[in-house]
Specification:
The chain is 86% helix and 0% strand. The longest helix has 27 residues. The model has no long low-confidence stretch (mean pLDDT 86). The chain has 110 residues and is an all-alpha fold.
Length: 110
Amino acid sequence: FNIWLIPLYGALGAAIGTGITIAGINAARILAVNYTLRIHPFRMNLLRITLISIIASGLTWFIRRFFMLHIISQIFIYIGAYLLLTYFFFLDSEDKEVLKWFVQKVKRLS
């Protein structure tokens, strides 16, 4: 990928090409482990976390495209989107119980 991306995009193309290559190698390793040992090394929660990150990144990029925001504002938008998506769509009941316990502990301290 670097052969095509570096002449077009320079350092950014090198980073993108390297990322694609590393992702491909990791996918091949997962398939090899799955094929040889008949186990899957990851749980579905990892896929959910990845999906949340992609959605939050897309939302941040979309907002940044139309509004000139400082990098700190973009970080807070990303973190807020990530936490809201996690809480409303992807938390298990056990995770929500742990979060409620944590909030109660923080309230007692303040």
